[in-house]
Amino acid sequence: MSLANIAAEIFMKQIGGSGNADMISTALGSLLGGSDGNIDLMDIISKFQSGGLESVVSSWLGDGGNDGISAEQITNILGLENIASFAARIGIDTDTALGGLQNTIPNMIDQSSSNGSLLDSVGGLDGALNIAKGLFG
């Protein structure tokens, strides 16, 4: 199952289970940095870290509980116009979309990390080194 499909399932649960899973999956992929309809996990992590949320993102990657994220923080990172476009694309209002994203993003990242490690998700140690070069290079 793709990351966009996992995120769509989480999102649908957050907004009450309604909606077309394929449409939500594609819309989430577009919103969260996927050029091919899937979610670019490292891109979204990088966006949130660059937005001053390093410790919050670390909680999502670790084994403990996930720190929450506010609608304002999501809006600052992703942009209100992008979120409004996402909401319109799947037929919900912007506030409902923000509420769903507040739980979907942390849970998606948490579920994608295996015991707090993204090595499997990014292609092992080589993939992690390439990501590190992009963040610090």
Overall description:
This protein has 137 residues and is mostly helical. It contains 9 helices and no strands. The relative contact order is 0.16. Mean pLDDT is 81; it is low at 119-129 and 131-137.
What percent strand? under 5%
The percent range for helix content is over 70%
Q: Work out the radius of gyration.
A: 14 Å
| H/I helix tally | 9
Structural class: mainly alpha
Unreliable residue runs: 119-129, 131-137
Distance between the termini: 32 Å
Largest sheet: none
Total number of beta strands: 0
Shape: globular
Quaternary structure state of the chains depicted: single chain
**H/E order of the elements?**
HHHHHHHHH
Provide the residue-averaged pLDDT: 81
Helix and strand layout, with pairings?
Elements: H1 3-14, H2 21-31, H3 41-50, H4 54-61, H5 71-78, H6 80-90, H7 94-112, H8 119-122, H9 124-136
Any descriptors?
single chain, 9 helices, globular, mainly alpha, 0% strand, disordered C terminus, 137 residues
Compose a concise summary of this entry:
Helices cover 70% and strands 0% of the residues. With 137 residues, the chain is mainly alpha-helical.
